[in-house]
Amino acid sequence: PPSSSSVSSGKHPYPYADRGPAPKPTAPSAFQQHPASAVEAKTTHLLRGLTIANATSIMLRSQLITHKQLHVPLEPSHVSSLLSLCEILKAIEKMILVRRRGAVLSIQRAALKMVASSIFKRFEGLRSYADQYTSMYQSNSPASAAHAARISTCLAALEGVLKGSSSFSPARRYAIAVAISACMDTQFSNGLSSEDAAAAENLLRHLGLIADFDDNIRQACDCSFLYFHQELLPTFVNKLYQSGTFADVGRMQLILSAFSDPARELLRCTPHLDAYGPDKMTSCIECYQNYIIGDVMKGEMIGLICTAIETDLRLAVHTKNLEYMRPSNPKVNKMKNIRSYLEMSTLYICDAQVNIKKEVEKYLESVFYNLAAVSLQDAHTYTEMRILAKERYGLDLIDNQLPMGSLEKGVDILYIMRSIQEFVTSYKYNLNQQNFIQRRPDRSSKFLNTISVQSISASLRQHGLGIVSTAINHAYQFLSKKFQTFSEFLVDEYIQSLISKEVRWFDESKETTNSVYPFSRALTFASEFRKLGVTNKGLTCLDKCRILVTEIGNSLGFVRMVQSAGRKYCSDAAQFLPATVVNHKFYVASDEDGAEEEKIPDTPVTKAAKNIDEAILALNKNLGKKSDYIRVLRRVFRGTLLKSDCAHLEGFFAIIPALCLGWIEASLQGKEMMHKKSANRDGYFTDDGFAMGIAFILSVLGQNDQFDSLNWFESLREKLDSDQDDINSKRDAQVFRSQVLAVNSQKSSMFGSFFTQAEEKETGEYGEDELTILNMMGKRISGNKREMEILFYSMHGARKFFRSG
Fold this sequence. Notes:
Elements (H helix, E strand, L loop, with lengths): L4 H4 L19 H6 L1 H36 L8 H21 L1 H21 L2 H13 L5 H23 L5 H14 L10 H18 L1 H9 L10 H12 L2 H5 L1 H18 L7 H45 L17 H4 L4 E3 L2 E3 L1 H19 L4 H15 L19 H6 L1 H7 E4 L4 E4 L11 E2 L1 H11 L2 H25 L2 H16 L1 H4 L5 H12 L10 H34 L29 H20 L5 H14 L13 H18 L15 H13 L2 H5 L3 H40 L5 H45 L4
Antiparallel strand pairs: 1-2, 3-4, 4-5
Helix pairs in contact: 3-4, 3-5, 3-10, 4-10, 4-13, 5-7, 5-9, 6-7, 7-8, 8-9, 11-13, 11-14, 13-14, 14-16, 14-17, 16-17, 19-25, 20-25, 21-25, 24-28, 25-26, 25-28, 25-29, 27-29, 28-32, 29-32, 31-32
């Protein structure tokens, strides 16, 4: 096609424009009077746009290529300039080829007709002279007449091509050029002048320029070279996102259109990709498209928008629901104008459509559903966030239709495994109901969390039976650390001396005490530990040992719960298997005689058979006796202690009575705290982890018989019964005395009294106060007796778990 040198030179593209500047189109009459001038002015603007596009493309290419060849990094201050150059190119292309397409086509057709008319006017004199020459020399010089006739024919052909159609393809332009060349004959003295020939040549060049205007614009605005500068796209997108103005939001499509040009022509026409076939070419285009959409757009813009919206929604909802959270100050924490990005129209990237609003909605729906499915108690919170997203950002999020809670789903087993230390200290174990109850609610929470066999079974149903061995391993490691701490506590010289002294006293006093460890001795032994020191929270060394034993028991309770939950899960799954299938194998690799058959091909049917056999085997294994993890742990710890020197642990049984007294007192305080609103300590009604820990340690150390020889619970029961009888007798005496005083007061009113009124009043008040004290002491003893019975039966039941055999 004709070059655009004349356009780039800044000269007027039409020689007939020397008539002076066209009048300004300030009114319709100006266009009516000078239609040709209006077309010339508009065509000049179009060609000026082509000139700007060529200059911009050259500037952008030279800037990028120079930096790349010289290995000079671009400065941050140059990013805005490069961004503007890309926008200018795509803005010109979009304006001419898309938005004003109808106006451009009409101007183009009018300009082509005017240029064609101007070309033909240059040959009107030659045509009249050729006609006269043909008629003049037709008889005298036939050769000259024939030559003139050929010129007339070329002129007729030129007229037909110029006036036959408003579109001028390359073939038509070549025909015009041939006709013009044939008309330039030097034999005619009055033929085509040199000025007309030069003007015709110039007009023909501009005819091609206007006819190929669309191709020239596409070529000038083509940004396929940006394929080799892909690293600029993340910087451009991030800069537009950080600016956050509405004008910058509209520039995003222009930048993406510029970087989409390589997929339009370059990646489809690269010669070295032809050797790999069309599939390789397609994958190259898809990789480039995934880079722009997946890596750049979602990483530098969409992902940031999603995170910002999610964070804003969470802070807004939590600020309303949680008391300790304060609302953010909008003057200090200014939020980006994200809604302008959500209102942006659909982006077109490499023949793909990306709607930022839809992407954000998809992300929030996925996050809200997944998090609500994990913890159903938070479903109401995510419902509030969904409503708030509609109000603030106009996001239409689909309701996940999940329930607001579940009776089976509780604390996940993975959370317990990751923070088992926090778990054993924050929860209390109930041996009979086999569940854990939280000691105190979480911050700003009104409910206590509970963990039962059903909740652990639901976790196993979610994560699979493979997590059981991992949970037992975590519990074993935790027990090892706690047992090490327990051993270090008993190896202390002061503790060891107290225990040794108590063991010697009991051995020497068996005959006098009838092999019964007295309550008074246990009380004195506990007071000896208080002399060793008290912490800021009022805990003695004995209290710390009791808490340590409780933590050991809680971890064993967790092991027992996992074991029961695994069996429940397996029993629920096994109910769908017939009895004849339990011991049946679906995949058999040999015949009944044991001879190996031909190798069975690995097909989906054989894979399914193997999977069924593995599932049945796993169910049988978890339902069998081999899954008794409590006894496994006892066996492991006992075997380890037998191989090591544990002489300092031989007197542990002697410290149990003092530990029991501390547990009874702590249990009573915990139950009293449940009825008080402003409690300094945690309130709880069950703590069977202590009994579980005592039973485990006695079984591991082999001191069950030695502890039974103390007859501790018989002694404690006898002491509490004795105190109860003493309180009952004192209460009866006090009641009898009150009755006697009442009778005397009646007689004194009739016959006079030997006592004064003050003496009678003082005696009555003293009797009422003493009776109140006796009632309180009776309740206290009843509570101690109840707690003693709970501890006795809990330890008796827990010791059954660790019996040998």
